[in-house]
Amino acid sequence: MEVKDIIARTNAFLVEEFEVAPESITPAANLKATLELDSLDYIDLVVVIESNFGFKVKPEDFQGIVTFQDFYEYVINRLEQKALV
What we know:
By secondary structure, the protein is an all-alpha fold. It has helices at residues 3-18, 31-35, 39-53, 68-84. The chain is globular and about 35 Å long.
């Protein structure tokens, strides 16, 4: 899967799951603020990631994720790791 496809797929499920305007999701935007995430929303986000991309997410994985770009890079790296196994 190409990077642009991963980003498009990620944005599509974020828009649907968190009911945000697609134009509000930009690489530099703050993930937590844009999606208005609280602790329960993080659980929803983990479930959506796992079901869409087929890898397990640990809560500590989110500590370094601030922007959507950070989030994309996380997903891309995890998919690359999964492909190597």
